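[agent] plan:
  1. take the single chain provided in the ticket
  2. run structure prediction with default settings
  3. attach structure tokens to the ticket
  4. add a short note for the reviewer (M.T.)
[agent] executing step 1
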Amino acid sequence: MWFKAVPLLFSEPTVRGSRVKTQIRRPWPRYPVVAMGDHQAGAVPSSSTAFDRERQQLLSEITKGVSDIAGSIETIALNARIISQVGQSLQLSAAPWILLDECVAGQHRSR
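[agent] step 2 finished; step 3 output follows
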């Protein structure tokens, strides 16, 4: 099912004093959303039903996007944990050499 293209918001300029202010209003009283495919051609469903369907579709898309972001965050956290473990193992394997260098440097300083 697809929906006819309808602007989500429209603006009307209103004059107040010397300034022009833009008012934002919801479009459904003027522009009913027509669900194509569910009804006979030319039949306009009640705007509340079409609005509920569109809202549900948008909500499901938002939910999917949030779950994708959560999955990406979990992947980043796992990669960070792996990098941390590799870094710790490198530090442990380099530790004896670092200590040896420090001891040799200390002996040179003491002489």
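[agent] step 4 note for reviewer: The two ends are 86 Å apart (CA to CA).
[agent] ticket updated
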